[in-house]
Amino acid sequence: AFREVRKYSVTDKVDVTNNPTAIEHIHMKLFRAQRNEYIAGFALLLCLLLRRLATLLSQQATLMASNEAFKKQAEGASTAAETYLEKNKQLHEKLLEAGIEVPEAGKKGVGLQEENKSLKEELKTLKEQLQDTKKALQKSDSDVCAMKKQAENLTVEYDRLLEEHSKLLASSDKKSD
């Protein structure tokens, strides 16, 4: 397309003496070459935009999958921690009913309390991770919406340009007749 535009952009060297419609013919060829150049440019632009859109969509799908995995892991850890706390409470009550002294803080029970604290901290960190993944999911959802709007706008603009192109082509065909 670039070569054709350069080839037909030289109208000064056309010999009009033998063929009086040569200039109009050259202008017609130049118009077609420029049209093809613009079409090729828009096609290249759309190809790049579609490729970027596809990569963003695949990244978003990956983020959603990892988000679901983190969510399930956090829910599993929180339910496990709750069941362990409930079992610990039940065992503590059974020991008191049986008349067995329950070790207090500072004695043998210190290890259990530290474990309980570490489980609570782990539960807290998992909940924070869940919140972070929820935020990442919301961000990726908003990115997808923005990409969809951008793709729709590009489609509308492309349709408008295509319609304008067809009008120009129709008017050039009428002029050449």
TrEMBL record:
UniProt-listed Gene3D superfamilies: 1.20.5.110
Coiled-coil region: 109-171
Protein's membrane topology: Multi-pass membrane protein
Domain Bap31/Bap29 cytoplasmic coiled-coil residue range list: 121-177
Keyword Transcription: no
Domain BAP29/BAP31 transmembrane: 1-69
UniProt KW keywords: Coiled coil, Endoplasmic reticulum, ER-Golgi transport, Membrane, Protein transport, Transmembrane, Transmembrane helix, Transport
Keyword Protein transport among record annotations: yes
InterPro entries listed in its UniProt record: BAP29/BAP31 (IPR008417), BAP29/BAP31_N (IPR040463), Bap31/Bap29_C (IPR041672)
Transmembrane annotation, as ranges: 38-57
Location of the protein in the cell: Endoplasmic reticulum membrane
Stated role: May play a role in anterograde transport of membrane proteins from the endoplasmic reticulum to the Golgi.
Similarity comment text for this entry: Belongs to the BCAP29/BCAP31 family.
Protein name: Endoplasmic reticulum transmembrane protein
